[in-house]
Specification:
This protein has about 150 residues and is mostly helical. It has 2 domains: about 1-85, no CATH class; about 85-150, no CATH class. The protein has helices at about 10-25, 30-40, 45-60, 70-85, 95, 100-125, 130-145.
Length: about 150
């Protein structure tokens, strides 16, 4: 996850210019500071995510004034989708024989990895739970088979 700071000023300006390209808003220093603060507070995961969310918003809601809360809402919805389709993995025997803390750590990491992969698939342009899940399965098959998807 990105920690949005003043160092991300140019990145946020780029994102706001993308927004302004369709609604002709002017961008002030206060706009950039405000959007940076909201991105940090809401935990936007990356500039790539925000860029994809802006493009998706513009495609789905033409003529609606985009606010940073719309990006936050998209992230919340995406996290919920990822949670809804998460399936607990098979637990290796060595983890099952280990401590409860090791088991919990394994399960937390599996959930974190799923969320990150789900987010990456969405950023790449896959939309909808079924299509993202299919893309993740395809990537898993390529990893298992050494690169050749079946």
């Amino acid at each position: 996850m990105t920690v949005w700071t003043e160092d991300d000023w140019d990145t946020m300006v780029d994102l706001l210019e993308l927004v302004a390209a369709t609604d002709r808003r002017t961008i002030s220093e206060l706009d950039v500071r405000t959007w940076l603060a909201i991105a940090q507070d809401a935990g936007w995961p990356s500039a790539d995510f925000a860029r994809r969310a802006i493009i998706r918003f513009r495609n789905e809601r033409p003529g609606v004034w985009l606010e940073p809360g719309h990006i936050t809402q998209a992230y919340r919805e995406l996290r919920q989708e990822a949670r809804d389709c998460y399936q607990e993995p098979d637990v290796p025997n060595e983890v099952l024989r280990g401590s409860h803390a090791e088991y919990q750590a394994f399960m937390r990491q599996a959930a974190t990895d799923h969320h990150a992969r789900y987010l990456a698939a969405w950023i790449e342009g896959h939309q909808g739970r079924e299509r993202i899940t299919a893309a993740l399965r395809s990537a898993d098959l390529r990893a298992i088979s050494g690169g050749a998807a079946s």
